[in-house]
Structures are given as C-alpha cells and as structure tokens.
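Continuing the batch. This is chain 6 of the set; chains 1 through 5 are on the previous pages. Same settings as before, nothing changed between runs. Recording input and output for traceability.
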Amino acid sequence: MKVFVLITGLLLLASFAQADTIYQWVDKKGVIHFTDQYEKVPAAYRDQAKKQTIEDSPRTSIVPPSGTPSRKDEEVSTSPLGQNEAYWRDRVRPWREKLAEAKTKYESANQKYLEKSEQLSQRKFGSRTQYKMDIFELDKLNVERKKYETEMNEANDALKKISREAEEARANPEWVK
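Output for chain 6:
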C-alpha cells in the first residue's frame, strides 16, 4: 500500500512540473511554422528550428500601462477561431495560382481557336476531308477553351467563398486579396 501511495504521489508531482516543447521554423516563403514534434519539422529546416520550452505557470492578469489602448481599441489580428493572416493567405494562394494558370491556358487555347477560325474562313479551295478535319480541330479547341473557362469560374467561386468566410470571421479584408 505504501508503494502505491508513493507512486501516486510521484505521478502527481510529475504532472505539476510538466513543460511543453515547441519547435519553430520559417520556410522559404517566409511562413512561420510551429510543431510539438521534432519529427514533423522538415529535414531542410531542422538546422534552423528553434526549440522553446514552455512551462506551466499560474495565470496572472496583465494590466496595460496607462495610455496604452485597451484590447477593444486594437485592431483584431485573428478571427474568433484564432485564424490569422497566414491562415487566410494560405487558403487564398492555391486558388489564385489555379486562376492564373487557367487564364493563361484559356488565352492560349482561345488564340489557337481564333487563328484556326481565321484560316478556315479564308480557305476557298480544298478537299472536303481537309475541311472536316479543320472543323474537328476547331471543336476540340472549343472544348479546351470551355474546360479552362470552367476552371476559372471554379477558382473565382472558391475565392468569393473564402472572402465571405473571412468576412464572417471578421478577418482583415486585406488578408484575402
């Protein structure tokens, strides 16, 4: 029984003296990352990862000095769910990239379509087979244009949705631009 009480006491003391270790690193895009497991730090950033030990301490209230604006006067830097600028920029970035890529591909396909249309309209002589092949190629280019147009619409819709979510979360509108 004494051993049980002794082990229980030691476990209680160990739980009070607990500390958390956090690793922090900055990737090549300048984004700051945090993790509590060293294995999750990418190998390329392990040499620059900063190890921080955070010990539990009793909560104390900090009273700002007079003349310092109160929390109510400060601009909200995170949403109520703790979503900060990096969160919103990370949500927007892939959709902006997809939109730019789709626009580029659409413009290329559209240019080819217009050139082929112009060639076809100027053709006065030629075989029926060649004419059918040109029409088939035009149809193929038109399908390609519509595909990229759909991708652009999808990206624009996703960006609008993210913008609405950011507005509902009261995030800074500049974060999603």
